[in-house]
Amino acid sequence: QAQLVESGGGLVQVGGSLRLSCAASGRTFSSYGMGWFRQAPGKEREFVASINWRGSRSYYADAVKGRFTISRDNAKNTVYLQMNSLKPEDTAVYSCAARPDANDPYREYSYAYWGQGIQVTVPS
Q1: Nearest to 39 by CA among 6, 14, 71, 16
Q2: Residue 45, class by beta-carbon neighbours within 10 Å (0-12 exposed, 13-18 middle, 19+ buried)?
Q3: What span, in angstroms and rounded, lies between the C-alpha atoms of 123 and 107?
Q4: Using one digit for the tens of pLDDT, what is the confidence trace for 16-67?
Q5: I want to staple 53 with a disulfide (CB 3.0 to 4.6 A). Which of 18, 48, 101, 105 is the partner?
Q6: b/e map of 70-101 (b: 16 or more CB within 10 Å)?
Q7: What pLDDT, on the 0 to 100 scale, is given for residue 54?
Q8: Which one-letter DSSP state was computed for residue 26?
């Protein structure tokens, strides 16, 4: 059974950094595009970042561009989200997801597998 498990979340001060990890098990996702989404309280889930299967192309929401970096290690079946210069508005539950690589990286419906999500809190 395919499973995605996020780790690395927590509470961090404004301007700080966190690195989220998403470990895949049950199948290999090396041929899949991977993405991160987030959902803040009372808001819709939104796209954060995505990366293609090779790791050669990445995509970012405007709100995180220049601060967040997505990467992957296919040998470890793991994708990462390095988050720097964190702001209170980054507070949300972050979820990783996997999509067929040809699908639109920005759309939720492109993703076939989802993790449970992990909390990131940046107090103001």
Answers
A1: 6
A2: middle
A3: 29
A4: 999 999 999 888 888 999 999 999 999 999 999 999 999 999 999 999 999 9
A5: 101
A6: bebebeebbbbbebeebeeebbbbbbbbbbeb
A7: 95
A8: S
